[in-house]
């Protein structure tokens, strides 16, 4: 896979899954715009990429704020003359049993994990339509099928599935592919935050018997972003060691 000359935006790339995705795309030659609210983490991702011979820059952005997401996408395209790849990875969780979940927890998760995806996809689809080329990869989650303690997160990630499939239908004829990844249980700060007994429950559901690594997901995204995946559109791909079958 070769992404030389491609311009990619990865949201939530200061750490965890997003960091792994940004590093992989850069390793394959893309110029990566590391978008996050966490400046220190984003700068660290950038330095790591540059030290390894890649190209990257930081764009601080809260994707839940539509004006900020619009600026991220439009200023990137203006500066580089193109936007080839958009990876919507930014996500938060505010886990709680449904009967205890407050509206703040609901709104925060829906705002970042679903509205945030719409906020970048809307301006990106306009730019990609004009250039008649583009790759959008959205990060959904195995939780979209339902997960105890994640009514807000699951609803948002299910929303991402519908958004992805609709965009795939609308944008396909403009040579733009839109796909979603469902990571299973990946070893990141987010999953490390679950209670120990829940960690064991989750891992026990994985036929491969272990949590995934960010690079397991990043490899799949790199493929979807590459020319080799030019006829894959509207798919939902599980990367979870068989957690969802
Ligand atoms: N599967 C089955 N049972 C579960 C469960 C799960 N995934 N998670 C919790 N439970 C059970 C608990 O074992 C407990 O059962 P008992 O009453 O029989 O002991 C019951 O549900 C209530 O759980 P808690 O006692 O922990 O209740 P709480 O109110 O203190 O906490 C909670 C609830 C905040 C949801 C906590 O259980 C929790 O953090 N669960 C983890 C939720 C989770 O899976 N998050 C995924 C984070 S990673 C991520 O989001 C990335 C991704 O894409 C997957």
Automatic annotation (TrEMBL):
Residues 6-184 form the Ketoreductase domain. The keyword Aminoacyl-tRNA synthetase does not apply. Its EC number is 1.1.1.100. It holds the Pfam family adh_short_C2. Pathway: Lipid metabolism; fatty acid biosynthesis. Homotetramer. This is 3-oxoacyl-[acyl-carrier-protein] reductase.
């Amino acid at each position: 896979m070769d992404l030389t000359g491609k311009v990619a935006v990865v949201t939530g790339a200061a750490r965890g899954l997003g960091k792994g995705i940004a590093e992989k795309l850069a390793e394959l030659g893309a110029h990566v715009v590391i978008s996050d609210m966490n400046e220190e983490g984003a700068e660290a991702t950038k330095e790591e990429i540059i030290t390894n011979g890649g190209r990257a820059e930081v764009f601080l952005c809260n994707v839940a704020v539509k004006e900020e997401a619009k600026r991220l996408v439009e200023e990137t395209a203006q500066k580089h003359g193109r936007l080839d790849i958009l990876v919507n990875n930014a996500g938060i969780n505010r886990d709680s049993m449904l009967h205890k979940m407050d509206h703040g927890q609901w709104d925060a998760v829906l705002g970042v994990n679903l509205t945030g995806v719409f906020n970048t996809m809307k301006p990106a689809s306009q730019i990609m339509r004009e250039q008649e080329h583009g790759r959008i990869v959205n990060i959904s989650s195995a939780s979209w099928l339902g997960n105890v303690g994640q009514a807000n997160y699951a609803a948002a990630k299910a929303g991402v599935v519908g958004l992805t499939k609709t965009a795939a239908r609308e944008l396909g004829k403009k040579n733009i592919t839109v796909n979603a990844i469902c990571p299973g249980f990946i070893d990141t700060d987010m999953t490390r935050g679950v209670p120990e007994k829940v960690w064991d429950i989750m891992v026990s559901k994985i036929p491969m018997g272990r949590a995934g690594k960010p690079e397991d997901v990043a490899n799949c995204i790199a493929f979807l972003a590459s020319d080799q995946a030019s006829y894959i559109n509207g798919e939902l791909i599980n990367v979870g060691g068989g957690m969802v079958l």
